[in-house]
């Protein structure tokens, strides 16, 4: 926060937290519940490494964790409402029409079989199949900072089809089995319906083909979505002709097809890789979005690691003439959701949820997302040039039921800003509280 004095930076942190609390106040019917929620937020931003019920309670001056547990359990309030509050709060500072919406998942390691959605399943967090919950997330990544915007607990089919387990974990009756790509499509739809400004979507191979691609084409959004080497590609109407799997196509590329480009700044400088981009077809935009014009290009982007030559593949969709550098920059912004997961888990207790219910998980995660937004907004404001306050961008809310965008061009994004979310700058660094062993709140 070099652009702000220490005293000014502290006031920015404090004012951002006060504003976030004020925005979530209407979600609670009772003042005492709203106050407990505010103290819960304080605890997430506090210095304790473990954000358990006992530790949050001690930080709040409560004799026990019961008030903290009530926020996640028996209290009456809507987690989706808090999700929307956090989204709108972050967007007023970070909104950017060229932003990238990044989709990904993360695992929450668990013991036992009672926590909602827990099962033996693969999670990249552990790099193996293990007993865990899986959360699907959407991150908003503009030129300056980033924030977690949406979340959903993945409910495995064995859970979705088991009435007894559903009842014990209080899974809503209208929640059924949904694949991770289908969950992602719902998140994209909510972002469009809320008028969230973005031009691109980036995701890994879980979300890279099929429904997600078609939903984005119909929304008029560009994308860079991971695919496997076995993904079959073929071109038409363009030269040279391309046909085969992504791996086969990459193996036949001449040395001149590759360019060394940076996907953004990393901790050790530019993240350099060799890249190749193949145009597969040029299609009229109005084939997908009625009333729009212009050609869009379907393509294949290939990344080659400098050290070991490992290849990664991406399906792309963008306005004709979009440069390879712009596509690389979009893919490079996918780093932000990994950074968000790390910050939220190590600093804000994202994986310290002690509840077992469906609504308990969504409430805890939504509170963490609001805490993350406080950090992102305060940092963005602190990094504003001296004497300037970052303008709040007004956003016209979409009124159509399907949330479909009428924009037919995705502008190339700027490179990663230095004003990324801090890993260790929470408000709680101003003080500490004694700790107590974790208490399992069975809410």
Automatic annotation (TrEMBL):
Source organism of this protein record: uncultured Acetobacteraceae bacterium
Native organism taxonomy: Bacteria, Pseudomonadati, Pseudomonadota, Alphaproteobacteria, Acetobacterales
InterPro entries linked: IS701-like (IPR039365), IS701-like_DDE_dom (IPR038721), RNaseH-like_sf (IPR012337)
Name of the protein this chain belongs to: Mobile element protein
Region described as Disordered: 383-443
SUPFAM superfamilies: Ribonuclease H-like
Regions of compositional bias (Low complexity) in chain numbering: 408-426
Domain Transposase IS701-like DDE: 25-237
Domain of life: Bacteria
Coiled-coil stretches: none
